[in-house]
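Support request, please re-run this one:
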Amino acid sequence: MKIILLRHGESDWNSLNKFTGWTDVDLTLKGVDEAKFSARQILLHNIAISSVNTSLLSRAINTAKIVCEILNFKKDKIIYNWELNERHYGALQGLNKSETATKYGEDQVHIWRRSYDIPPPKLSEEDKRHPKFTDKFRNIHEDLPVGESLKDVIDRLLPFWKEYSNNLKKGTSNLIVAHSNSIRAIIKILEEIDDKKISSVNIPTGIPLVYNLDKNLKVINKEYLIDDITLEEKKSLVINQGKALNR
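Re-run finished. Output below.
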């Protein structure tokens, strides 16, 4: 069976260099083009999608809908899971990344961004950025996050992953459209990556990552659906942006 992991296309706040997290921003025109590119790559590789799961955030939802339209996958079959939401960046949400690095120091911001189990400063209950003030999150019955580490993302994603993986059927190809950190969480689970090594895993926007799995969900192989040169250019861009902006 296959699992295709796809990070949404570029969002408005990606382009503005802001910590986004659970803030519900949409795609840029470039992000729309990246979503269309992803769909064409899936078509080019003759992958027939059996299921599509995405988060509750518009940038992932609209990426999924664009892909489904091109693949002729019925949009009403898309499954929405809050557990696939991006990592909640707490009190950093909405802040410019480079300005935050100037204020707190690059080393501290790097710890907040890339450490496995150290969360950013958390939101207060009264902060208007708290997810309880967003209508689409009011039906989530679990405690809403107010600042998460990658470990926290994995902890809230594991119940979803257990149910999801139990329902996978032999011979199917299943698409998950999500976010940088929720995808990193899935990759860590699939590949059993060390807590320290996961910090170096970077997920480019708009490129499908295909895992071929055996019946026990062990990875047989994986590949990005893009040529090697373009992939390395996109990965380098993500890494260099992280170094320069410490986001």
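The longest strand covers residues 2-7. The chain has eight helices and six strands.
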